[in-house]
Design brief:
Number of helices: 5
Shape: elongated
Distance between the termini: 8 Å
Order of helices and strands: HEEHHHEH
Strand order of the largest sheet: 2-1-3
Largest sheet: 3 strands, antiparallel
Structural class: mainly alpha
Radius of gyration: 21 Å
Number of domains: 1
Oligomer: single chain
Length: 149
């Protein structure tokens, strides 16, 4: 069965966009600067990078299931990471809101304003949009590809 070249090309481009998105800034942290998904070659970013490569490979091989599985795995890992980041930011803000123990009276909250300002300045960056576009293209190509008979 001959595949329409549009989904095949779109899936390969989607895999490439997803891979490029792994190296774009996804989080801005004060003092540390911008962080990418593949920060120092570890963590969930490597798994998304592998999913991007396999998605592009399955697009080239015209495998509908392969594209869809790769796209859904990348989306699930990204969602897990996004939720994990939000939970950690919430925990950090809650910890900074507590008064410091063992400090002399009146000095408990001396640095709490600075800590809260730092916690408030942690921001999501535009790399998430690139990752989402790559996943969307890969999934769209998978759904657009005609199933094998």
């Amino acid at each position: 069965m001959e595949i329409n070249s549009e989904p095949k090309s779109l899936g390969m481009i989607g895999g490439a966009v997803l891979a490029i998105g792994c190296f774009m800034p996804i989080l801005s942290v004060p003092i540390m600067g911008n962080m990418t998904y593949v920060q120092n070659g570890g963590g969930d970013g490597v798994l998304v990078l592998v999913a991007a490569a396999t998605g592009a490979f399955f697009s080239h091989k015209e495998s509908r299931k392969g594209m869809l599985i790769s796209g859904f795995i990348a989306a699930a890992i990204m969602l897990f990471t996004l939720i994990n980041i939000q939970v950690k930011i919430s925990e950090m803000k809650a910890e900074l809101a507590k008064p410091a123990e063992g400090m002399p009276a009146g000095m408990e909250n001396m640095f709490s304003g600075l800590g809260e300002a730092l916690a408030q300045s942690v921001q999501m960056q535009w790399g998430w949009a690139i990752l989402a576009i790559g996943v969307g293209m890969l999934l769209y190509a998978g759904f657009k590809t005609e199933p094998a008979e």
